[in-house]
């Protein structure tokens, strides 16, 4: 009896284990249908430029008949593969209140089996691409990806269903389908910075005198720009300039500067020094240089740039040592000196006569 009981317990354990292994094997090897695919939108910068104030759009269109993986493929029907919800990405400049080396968003491609009504099971191909825009400073991604949709027939219901979605040579993850736009990282000259530096000169100038500037940037609506103020001790403060907003007031002393990043072809800058405040400090001469060229007379520098540019404001305060007293008494001193010479000669002659 005891032996039979042990045998039954052993048999039950073996059967339970077999069932567990069998279920585990079924779970591990179950082929779950894949009906959608993520894709990535990335904008790369120099690390000092806010994301552009623009919308990136994408297109999904039927591909061409051909072959893939030694299998025949057909152009998919319209709408069989499409972008979920919307076919674009909106970027908001400065949305994280900081500039970054890259900005990334993730989208999704989805399938619609109803678009395959009347079609046979098979592999269908679609072309996925980015629609080139006109935002200045951006190099748009020109890649076109072939995405394959595997349509199968359910032998039980006789209905069609999507079994898989993939990109050749990939595992179908978001990293496999990536659109990258350069916005100042590699396309030198398309996105630039302007640095405004304050200098003082003259024998009465003081490196501690504060000068007031008004800075404004005009670009696309809602665009934002990173600006960095660098003090004489090399400490920095980051501020944000908004396109077409009122000019922002900035105070600079000798050797201090402000650098505005992210300026592209259509963007312009205007920097104006407060003339009255400068003259109130006793500075009567001001020169403005853009690069090595002297700008027009005045207290303002402005323009658009195609390369990183330096703008320098130099204020001079000199005092000339007074020389009026010396000039006033000089003739009299000369007369006294001549009288002394004549006196010496006269007395000497008299002495010789005696």
How is this structure best described in words?
The chain is 18% helix and 40% strand. It is an alpha+beta fold. Strands 2, 3, 4, 6, 8, 9 and 10 form a seven-stranded mixed sheet that branches. The chain is rod-shaped, with a radius of gyration of 40 Å.
Radius of gyration: 40 Å
Provide the β-strand percentage band. 35-45%
Order of helices and strands: HEEEEEEEEEEEEEEEEEEHEEEEH
- Sheet of most strands: 7 strands, mixed
Helix content: 10-25%
Work out the number of β strands: 22
In DSSP terms, counting alpha (H) and pi (I) runs of 4 or more, how many helices?
3
Q: Structural class given helices, strands, pairing?
A: alpha+beta
Oligomer: single chain
Global mean pLDDT = 84
Could you give the distance between the termini? 173 Å
Large-scale geometry: rod-shaped
Given as residue ranges, the uncertain stretches (5+ residues, pLDDT < 50) are 6-30
Topology:
Elements: H1 2-29, E1 36-44, E2 55-62, E3 66-68, E4 71-75, E5 81-83, E6 88-90, E7 102-111, E8 122-131, E9 144-153, E10 160-166, E11 178-182, E12 192-201, E13 211-218, E14 224-230, E15 236-242, E16 248-252, E17 257-263, E18 268-273, H2 275-280, E19 285-290, E20 293-294, E21 300-303, E22 309-316, H3 324-353
Parallel strand pairs: 1-11, 4-8, 12-22
Antiparallel strand pairs: 1-7, 2-6, 2-8, 3-4, 5-7, 8-9, 9-10, 12-17, 13-16, 13-18, 14-15, 14-17, 18-21, 19-20, 19-22
């Amino acid at each position: 009896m005891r032996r039979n009981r042990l045998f039954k317990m052993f048999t039950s354990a073996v059967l339970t284990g077999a069932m567990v292994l069998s279920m585990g094997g079924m779970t591990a090897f179950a082929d779950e249908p894949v009906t959608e695919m993520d894709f990535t939108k990335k904008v790369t910068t120099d690390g000092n430029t806010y994301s552009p104030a623009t919308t990136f759009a994408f297109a999904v269109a039927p591909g061409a008949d051909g072959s893939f993986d030694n299998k025949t493929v057909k152009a998919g029907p319209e709408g069989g593969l499409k972008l979920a919800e919307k076919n674009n990405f909106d970027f908001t400049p400065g949305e994280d209140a900081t500039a970054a080396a890259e900005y990334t968003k993730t989208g999704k491609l989805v399938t619609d089996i109803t678009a395959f009504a009347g079609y046979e099971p098979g592999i269908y191909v679609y072309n996925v691409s980015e629609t080139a825009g006109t935002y200045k400073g951006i190099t748009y991604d020109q890649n076109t990806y072939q995405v394959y949709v595997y349509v199968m027939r359910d032998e039980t219901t006789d209905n069609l269903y999507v079994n898989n979605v993939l990109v050749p040579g990939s595992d179908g993850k978001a990293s496999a389908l990536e659109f990258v736009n350069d916005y100042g990282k590699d396309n030198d000259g398309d996105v630039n910075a302007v640095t405004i530096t304050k200098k003082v000169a003259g024998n009465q100038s003081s490196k501690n005198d504060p000068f007031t500037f008004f800075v404004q940037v005009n670009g696309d609506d809602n665009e934002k720009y990173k600006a960095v103020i660098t003090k004489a001790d090399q400490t920095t403060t980051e501020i944000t300039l908004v396109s077409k907003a009122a000019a922002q007031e900035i105070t600079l002393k000798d050797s201090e500067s402000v650098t505005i990043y992210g300026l592209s072809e259509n963007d312009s800058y205007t920097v104006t020094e407060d003339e009255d405040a400068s003259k109130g400090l006793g500075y009567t001469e001001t020169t403005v240089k853009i690069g090595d060229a002297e700008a027009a007379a005045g207290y303002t520098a402005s323009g658009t740039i195609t390369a990183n540019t330096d703008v320098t404001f130099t204020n001079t305060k000199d005092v000339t040592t007074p020389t009026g007293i010396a000039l006033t008494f000089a003739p009299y001193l000369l007369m006294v000196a001549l009288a002394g010479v004549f006196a010496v000669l006269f007395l000497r002659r008299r002495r010789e006569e005696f």
